[in-house]
Structure formats: C-alpha cells, structure tokens
Amino acid sequence: MAHANETTSPPSAGPAAPSGPVRKKTLRQSDRRGVFGDKLFSGLAMAAGIAILVLLAFVALFLSSSSGRALYSEDEGLIVGQFLQYAMPLVGGTIIASIIALGLAAPVAIGVALFISHFAPPRASRSIGYVIDLLAAIPSVVYGAWGMSFLAPAMVPVYRWLHENLGWFPLFAGNPSGTGRTILTAGIVLAVMILPIITSVSREIFIQTPKLHEEAALALGATRWEMIKMAVFPFARAGIISGIMLGLGRALGETMAVALVLSGGALTASLISTGNQTIPAEIALNFPEAGPGSERQAQLIAIGLVLFIITLVVNMIARWIVSRNKEFSGAN
Fold it and tell me: One GO CC annotation, please (predicted)?
C-alpha cells in the first residue's frame, strides 16, 4: 500500500518545445519563404499583364505597317478617299448587324437570366442554365450552316409580308430577298450566338444580389417585380452592361456565321433586301485570293485595322460606362 506522502509523477508532455532563439529562427525562415512567394506571384502577374500589352502593341504595329499600301500609292500619292469609299459600307454593315443582334438578344438574355435566378424551380434552373452554357460551346460554323439552310428560307415569307405591309418604312423598303440571306437574317443568327454570353454573365450577377436587400424590399410590401427593380437591377447594372458589351464584341468580330448567311452586296438601308457586308466576312472571303504583299491584301489588312479600332473604342466606352455605374451597386 502506497504511503500518503508519495507523489505521482506527472504524465509526459511530449517533446520539449524549442527554445526562444530556435523558434524565432524558424519564424524568420517562414517569413522569408512567404515574402519570396509573394514576390514570385507578383512578378508572374506583372509579367502576364505586360505580355498582354506587348502582344496588343505588336498586333496594332503589324496591322498599321501592313496596311500602308492601301492608304498610299507611289503613282497617286495618298488614296485615303478611295479606301474610305471601300471601307464605309463594310463598317456600316458590321454596325447594323451588331445592333440588330444586340437589340434582339439583350432583352431576351436578361429575361432568361432573371427567370433562372429568381423564378424557376432549382431543378429547372440548373437544366436551363446547362442548356444555355451548351449554346455557347457550339461552333460558329454550325450556326452559319443553320442560318443558311434553315433560317434564311424560312424568313422569305416574312420578308414578303413586311414589304407588302410595311414597305413605306425605309428599313422594309426595296425588293425582298428571294433567298432570305439578308442583313436581318445575319443579325438574327448573331443574336442567337451572343445570347448565351449575355445570359451567363447576367445570371451570375443576379445570383450575387444581397439576400438582405431582397428580403428587406419584400418585407416593406414590395411585389417580386418591384423587389427586382429596387434591389436586383441596381446591384447588377454594371454586370449587365459588361455582359452586353461582351456580346457586342462577339457580334462585331464574328466571321464564319455571317460569311455563310449573308449574301454580300452594296450598302442598303433595307433589312430585307440582298446587300450589305461585314468586315470579318469580307476579310474571310477575300483574303485567300489576295496575293501576298499585293495591294488587295493591304486593303484587307487595313479594313482589319479599322475593325480593331472599332472594337477597342467599344471596349473603352464599355469600361467608362461600367466605371460610372459601379459607384452604386445596391450593396453600398
């Protein structure tokens, strides 16, 4: 029997903790590794940003240097007027097709995104969102083949009806196309192509709307639509504009779908007559036939430079609009 004055030894506490100087040294080594990692990541990020700017500068330099023969001739001197006479119809056709696509796609895309994020049941929301994402993965040549073989013939009776009933309006004047391959058909195909982009961006922004704002609006007696107007749209305004501008950039630069659908011709204000052409389709259809270093190739590169400038200006305007509207996002 153990004596009362015997004491039990405390259980072992494991290996002894490192002394003060050793622990400080370990912390200093960890700090050095963390600083090195931060500097490495910062350097890689900066290099990536500089690489994008350098690549953009090289593209602009190539387009500028290769398009000189389209603006200057040794025999005639400056021929800027001739080039503008060639370029303006193409610029007009590109802008018209893009505006048609944006006008048709943007309201539908915002409505679909709103339905997915706030009205559809969860299972239906996932299914519709999956289908929308699949639309963005379809190659443009497939859209072009669909527009040329199915949509264009189906639009011929519509164009005839528009001409007979609304022929007094300049957009529906002129002889309706017998093939349906018009700028309006190209705009519809482009609208289908940019619909997934605008829908996906808008949907993600709508989902990120603060729930407290939505619940507060409903608690104050607002209907669901009033809640969307007061809480969702103000918060998502900048994101919606960004999605629309992304879709516009896709419409401006689309090549194969427009080249297959549109039957090119002179610039016309009528949307149902044969005519008009876009810059990307003009380059795609004529560049293989233009000889290397020829004046025709320089002309096509110059019109590509015009498209480059238009796209750059559109993106700058988009950034300016977004920066003005992000000051009030509904969350501040």
Answer: plasma membrane
